[in-house]
Amino acid sequence: MQEVLDKIKPSKEEQVQFKKVVTQFIKQLNSKLNNAKAILGGSGAKDTWLSGSHDIDIFVQFDYQKYKGQSMELTLHLEKALNKAFPKVKISKLHGSRDYFQLTYHKYEFEIVPIIKISKSEKALNITDVSTLHSVWVNKNAKNIKDDIRLVKQFCKANKIYGAESHISGFSGYILEILVAHYGSFEKLLKSSLKWKNKQVIDPEKYYQGKDVFFNLNKSKLQSPLIIIDPVDKNRNAAAALSEERFAQFKKLAKKYLDQPNQKFFEKQEINLEKLKKKGNLVHLELKALIGKRDVVGVKLLKAFGFLEKELEPFGLKFSEWDWGQKRKADFYFVVKNKELPEFEVRSGPPLKLKDYVKDFKKKNKNTFTKNGKIFAKIKVKHRKLSSFVKNSVNDDYFKEKVKEVVKINV
């Protein structure tokens, strides 16, 4: 484990630089804020961040008494302060339950979120208001096991199950922090996960001890395979975004690792193009993602990928995968059995007894025939060759609106 930690735990130099930049940023922003205060949040505040991470969460706490009636106006107040504090920096406004901002400062990506300062989740006017309470809970309950949190984060990250965004539906940093705090270590978490059943309930603060969670919580919050009662908000399932696929993947990976521990579980396995070529005909698309909120952009990329996946099925799809890093570059990979489609495809029509529909089908299709009480049409395939087919597919309006640009097509 130490060898893995040496790679993923921020070095002293990295930590010093991180603190220096954060301190400068907060000081600069606070000098332009009134009745509000900027503080460090997220994994930076919990000291659970991974080496190489340049994403920093800043929460700007507005006074509860003064702003409780102006919850949706906090963004406007923050925007004015940001423009004054960083006049030469490009500031992007992103839409959320309460709009927030992103900017680059000294090569770090800052996300600045306006919140109401609260001490109890019951006073929250917005889901983001509870965020600072998460940091307090993790620092109190996982004080001496921060490295275990780093291990499980890297474990999930390397295996592409890290993140609660819609295009991933995996394990968020916060629920991994809760799980490690609850079970006591990285290894204990993995061992315990093997016993998880569908709709497993984990309630660290024992809010529902002796009570039926499924009776007390709203049904919409209980759709995930793992239910983690947020330790700072008993009415919230912190794992609500987790999909059954990611849940199953985690358990499978945990078993494999426990059976045969290896550093490879913490290393992202890059796509090997040469190996894929041996499986069949490789289609590799290099793309540029849209600019915007990561969750929204990711969902669009996933839909574009799903569209191509479906389109390529007639060629005999054998493998499909996609990858999107921190920047805007994305890659789609497909392996298909055939490089060319038959000259004609058969299109199924309505039953012969539906005469009006049959008549309409004949108008639209010239080369028709009947079989087993149905009408069919023989259609000449326009784009038979794989390369031509892919080029045509990426020019479809549905696909084009979901990506910024197709940089390169390798067929």
Structure characterization notes:
The protein has 411 residues and is of the alpha+beta class. It has 4 domains: 131 residues, Beta Polymerase, domain 2; 125 residues, CCA tRNA nucleotidyltransferase, domain 2 (Poly(a)-polymerase, middle domain); 95 residues, Poly(A) polymerase predicted RNA binding domain (Alpha-Beta Plaits); 37 residues, Alpha-Beta Plaits. It contains 16 helices and 14 strands. A 5-stranded mixed sheet has the order 1-2-5-4-3. Strands 9-10-8-14 form a 4-stranded antiparallel sheet. Helix 7 packs across helix 8, helix 8 packs across helix 9 and helix 9 crosses helix 11. The longest helix has 19 residues.
